[in-house]
Amino acid sequence: MRVLRRGDAPALASAYIRNRDYLSSWEPVRADEYYSEAWQRADINKRFAAAEAGEGFSLGLFAGDRIVGRFNLAGIVRGPFQSAGLGYWVDGQYAGRGLASAAVLAIVEAARDELGLHRIEASTLLHNIGSQRVLLKAGFQQIGMAPRYLKIAGSWQDHNLYQVLLHD
């Protein structure tokens, strides 16, 4: 796992194309252009700007040159909040192998030890048991349920809310 680079746009577009059907029930409806190298390059550039501002990091999980997962630590807020949001997915061919659990645990440790954050939040669809297990293994606790929280797969859907506190 490493920070995505500008040159990763072709591999990222390929990963999204390969996982389009697999991710469709877990993500917002995407326009066709989302799956292009140009769109992914522009998105990586936006996330580079966020990283330079200290507001987020976009990481890729790789098997050789192939991207098999994406993890975003976003919306970093400093001051008294010291918090960020976490989103992620793993390639359907690699799901269920513990890769997401290991990656999320590494992100939690880096957020605490390197970024000095106090808290990370994440959310899952109510029926996304796999993602809930990933978060629980990394020390997250469920803190509530948000009705109609995000528009996923074309409809507003309820989400379980989780957080992990990084400092006592």
The count of strands amounts to 7
Q: Can you count the helices?
A: 5
CATH class category name: Alpha Beta
What's the CATH superfamily, by name?
Gcn5-related N-acetyltransferase (GNAT)
The major beta sheet can be summarized as: 7 strands, mixed
**How many independent structural domains?**
1
CATH architecture: 3-Layer(aba) Sandwich
Question: What percentage of amino acids are in beta strands?
Answer: 35-45%
Would you list the SSEs in sequence order as H and E? Answer: EHHHEEEHEHEE
Lateral arrangement of strands in the main beta sheet: 1-2-3-4-5-7-6
**Alpha carbon gyration radius:** 15 Å
In one word, what is the shape?
A: globular
- Alpha-carbon distance between the termini? 28 Å
Class derived from helix and strand content: alpha+beta
Task: Summarize the entry for a quick read.
With 168 residues, the protein is of the alpha+beta class.
Produce the secondary structure layout.
Elements: E1 2-3, H1 9-18, H2 20-23, H3 37-52, E2 57-63, E3 66-77, E4 83-90, H4 99-113, E5 119-125, H5 129-137, E6 141-152, E7 155-165
Parallel strand pairs: 4-5
Antiparallel strand pairs: 1-2, 2-3, 3-4, 5-7, 6-7
Helix pairs in contact: 1-3, 4-5
Explain what the structure shows.
This protein is 32% helix and 35% strand. By secondary structure, the chain is α+β, with helices and mostly antiparallel strands. The chain has one domain (2-165): Aminopeptidase. Keywords: Acyltransferase, Transferase. Belongs to the acetyltransferase family. RimJ subfamily.
